[in-house]
Design a protein that fits this description.
Blueprint lengths: L4 H12 L3 H14 L4 E2 L2 E2 L4 H14 L10 H6 L2 H12 L6 H6 L6 H23 L1
Antiparallel strand pairs: 1-2
GO molecular function: L-leucine binding; oxidoreductase activity, acting on peroxide as acceptor
GO biological process, one term: positive regulation of macroautophagy
Protein name: SESN2 protein
């Protein structure tokens, strides 16, 4: 059975700690929806598929998979170096190196790479909360 933040985690945490669920949900939504609609030098780009692929890949690393998501998108949108970086930061942050950071998306701005870090850390937190709840 699917156990998602939207359907189960949010309401359960609100029962345990009133108003905390709303604060966490807003935090997740702000990071998930954050975009300048740019990728590298391209403006006016819809980045929602990329953001969703990163979020779902982090959840997948922790064993959370969604039946309604095509995980083929992850392989199409995330290069190998980025997937290695995401898995290392999410699972073994102490093993993350500057070289790993520079290896993925070489032509992208640092602000875009920071956004990747925000996405993966919030997705990791949500995955941990789902397990805890």
């Amino acid at each position: 059975q699917d156990y998602t933040w939207e359907d189960h985690g949010f309401s359960l945490i609100n029962r345990l700690y009133p108003d905390v669920g709303q604060l966490l949900d807003e935090k997740f939504q702000v990071v998930y929806n954050l975009t300048y609609n740019t990728i590298a030098m391209h403006c006016g780009v819809d980045t929602s598929m990329l953001r969703r692929a990163i979020w779902n890949y982090v959840h997948c690393v922790f064993g959370i998979r969604y039946d309604d998501y095509d995980y083929g998108e992850v392989n199409q949108l995330l290069e190998r170096n980025l997937k290695i970086y995401i898995k290392t930061v999410a699972c073994y942050p102490e093993k993350t190196t500057k070289q790993m950071y520079t290896q993925f998306w070489r032509h992208f701005k640092h602000s875009e790479k920071v956004h990747i870090n925000l996405l993966l850390l919030e997705a990791r937190m949500q995955a941990a909360l789902l397990y805890a709840l």
